[in-house]
Design the sequence.
């Protein structure tokens, strides 16, 4: 854990160096432009140069991005927390390490071939061109770096329009990516952004003929806007992942896994456990085991008071109070007059409670008792709300695992591990921070950012 004084000193030094220009002031940051028009012009030029680069050169650039990301993970984690007021520095460092180590590069591009009596046909994965990418406030630098690696591996240029509340962090990452590209002998401004992103700059980017593909990572609003753009679009939308616990597992381990996943970066990740459905015959044991592993249990009137902090009610409808997204559990407890600093707050609620229904992105996990797997699956599918994003289960019963997986139809389904195993942290498989449920690409990587092109030679090059 990082101590608070050290963190504030480091924040001051990162911000100071940005302002003094040693990392480049915003206007001197590489790839960061005052207007979207300038950014588009620059990336268009860079992409044309990039077309002549080899795959080996792409890999050199990506290797350098990985190296600098590891080196500057702490800076970006601190800046992200300082700018957005959300999340935990220690967890954000892990997220950057994951991006650096496990985002696929050019090895993700697999050409295919057909050979036979009439010759040989190959299908290669070609660049789209310049890709427009809209990124969220919850993983500002992680998404920029992850998408940059995948998009560059696919042979593309990228223009970002980051979340306005997280643009200093996102732009730091754009500068880092450009520094890495230049150090590895790549072109200037292959990845660009605007200093102060707005809705207007986003619209300009979406409409520009320079941009051939759009990728949005965020809530339902942005995915909808993207899908009405008339361009090829990848939409990575919101989730509200349920986790089921039945009575066949080691309850202590399940409890620890859920606390780890639901509290990670204060529950900001779209894949994080956001409500728990526990078999009634093990619920007490599960709650006790969670309390022993970093969770704080609240009840009765405390829950009602927490609702008033975390949510805003209007005409009987709830929406999240954005001021409280990604805040530490201890801050919520302080408002309730409790002096404690746990990783996670837990409470027992009904399935229709707003803590279950809303995607809180706060370290608060409601737990609902269920009688059997049928009720658990029914309520969990309802809570997931058709996002088809992520769902998790702790069970040794193959029928239970299968039933839930088939019913919930999510892009990610983690069994017997914390949710982050779904993006390669402690589980097999690569990492992404752009999980495309609505448009179906799933966990995006270099291959998602390519066009398949077929090249046919008749009556030749078939050697059998
Ligand atoms: P957000 O939807 O508020 O913002 C995301 C991005 O979209 C920002 O850059 C924002 O400026 C832009 N945006 C929002 N509405 C827009 C519109 N109508 N037109 C154009 N641009 C628009 O989300 P956030 O609070 O930054 O991030 C949290 C949300 O993102 C959660 O719902 C979370 O589940 C989701 N998320 C999804 C993934 C994924 O891979 N599927 C990853 C991270 C976050």
Sequence:
């Amino acid at each position: 854990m990082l101590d608070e004084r050290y963190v504030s000193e480091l924040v001051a030094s990162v911000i100071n160096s940005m302002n003094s220009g040693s990392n480049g002031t915003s206007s001197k940051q590489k790839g960061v432009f005052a207007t979207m028009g300038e950014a588009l012009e620059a990336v268009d030029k860079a992409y044309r140069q990039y077309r002549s680069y080899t795959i080996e050169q792409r890999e050199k650039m990506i290797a350098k991005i990985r190296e600098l990301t590891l080196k500057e993970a702490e800076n970006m984690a601190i800046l992200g927390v300082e700018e957005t007021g959300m999340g935990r520095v220690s967890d954000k460092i892990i997220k950057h390490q994951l991006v650096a180590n496990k985002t696929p590069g050019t090895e993700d591009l697999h050409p295919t071939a057909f050979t036979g009596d009439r010759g040989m046909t190959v299908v290669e994965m070609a660049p789209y061109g310049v890709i427009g990418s809209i990124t969220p406030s919850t993983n500002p630098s992680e998404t920029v770096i992850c998408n940059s690696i995948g998009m560059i591996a696919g042979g593309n240029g990228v223009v970002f329009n980051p979340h306005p509340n997280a643009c200093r962090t996102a732009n730091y990452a754009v500068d880092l990516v450009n520094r890495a590209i230049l150090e590895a002998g790549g072109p200037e401004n292959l990845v660009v952004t605007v200093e102060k992103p707005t809705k207007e700059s986003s619209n300009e980017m979406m409409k520009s003929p320079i941009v051939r593909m759009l990728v949005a990572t965020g809530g339902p609003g942005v995915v909808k806007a993207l899908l009405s753009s008339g361009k090829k679009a990848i939409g990575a939308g919101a989730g509200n992942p349920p986790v089921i616990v039945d009575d066949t597992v080691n309850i202590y381990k399940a409890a620890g896994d859920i606390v780890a996943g639901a509290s990670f970066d204060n529950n900001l990740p779209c894949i994080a456990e956001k409500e728990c459905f526990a078999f009634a015959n093990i619920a007490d044991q599960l709650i006790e085991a969670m309390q022993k592993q970093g969770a704080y249990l609240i009840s009765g009137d405390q829950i009602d008071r927490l609702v008033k902090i975390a949510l805003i009610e209007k005409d009987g409808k709830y929406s999240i109070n954005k001021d409280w997204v990604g805040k530490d559990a201890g801050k919520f407890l302080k408002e309730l007059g409790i002096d404690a600093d746990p990783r996670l707050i837990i409470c027992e609620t009904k399935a229709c409670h707003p803590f279950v229904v809303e995607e809180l992105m706060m370290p608060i996990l409601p737990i609902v008792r269920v009688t059997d797997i049928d009720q658990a699956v029914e309520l969990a599918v309802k809570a997931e709300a058709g996002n088809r994003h992520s769902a998790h289960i702790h069970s040794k019963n193959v029928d239970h695992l299968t039933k839930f997986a088939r019913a919930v139809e999510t892009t990610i389904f983690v069994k017997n591990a914390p949710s982050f195993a779904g993006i390669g942290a402690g589980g097999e498989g690569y990492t992404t921070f752009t999980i495309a449920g609505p448009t179906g690409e799933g966990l995006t990587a270099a291959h998602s950012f390519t066009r398949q092109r077929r090249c046919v030679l008749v009556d030749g090059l078939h050697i059998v």
